[in-house]
Automatic annotation (TrEMBL):
GO terms for molecular function: DNA-binding transcription factor activity, RNA polymerase II-specific; E-box binding; protein dimerization activity. It comes from Champsocephalus esox (pike icefish). Keywords: Developmental protein, Differentiation, DNA-binding, Neurogenesis, Nucleus, Transcription, Transcription regulation. This is BHLH domain-containing protein. SUPFAM superfamilies: HLH, helix-loop-helix DNA-binding domain.
Amino acid sequence: MDLALSDTDTSSGFSARSDDENSRSPCATSPVMKKRRGRADGGPPVKRNRRVKANDRERNRMHSLNDALEILREVLPACPEETKMTKIETLRFAHNYIWALSETLRNADLEAERSFHRAEAPNPGSSSSEAWSCSSSSSSSSSSSSSSSSPVYCASSPGSPENYFQPQDAMFLRAFVPPVY
DNA sequence: TAGGCCATCTGGTCCT
DNA sequence: AGGACCAGATGGCCTA
């Protein structure tokens, strides 16, 4: 007892999709008619017309969302080039990546601060060793994301980004992070 | 074949 | 009133 799917009104709302959809989603759907729910006749013509317009806007909205996601994918360092990250993977990976970048900056700041102190006081005595413990969170929070210095990471991520790149390995990022002055 | 991912439709809610 | 946003439902495609 499904709601009637009207295969007949293919003209409404589906016309704009086919070629557009082909160009947008290289991986998945063929431009074939998908599903249709609701009343077979679409209800009153006025309501139906409004629904069709709303569907069109919703489609465009999701397309722009996907475009933004695609831009994000291009910015991220993709390790296996041929595999496309899923949406959730992209978001999690971006999260990790941003964390690692900020961690790298933070470490660079700490290091700069240490070398500055070393230059001022050639015999620091005992105070120099603590700076290496980057979890000490002293006062040098230049731009750290204010939450915590060792975030709990997408711990529940079933999947993959962490397979490519562990957020804990901030040093890994030094490979593609420009030198911080 | 089951499960994951995705695109789309749809109705509800909030905002302008 | 109409648009934006959201979450649920549904069906197609792909892979293990």
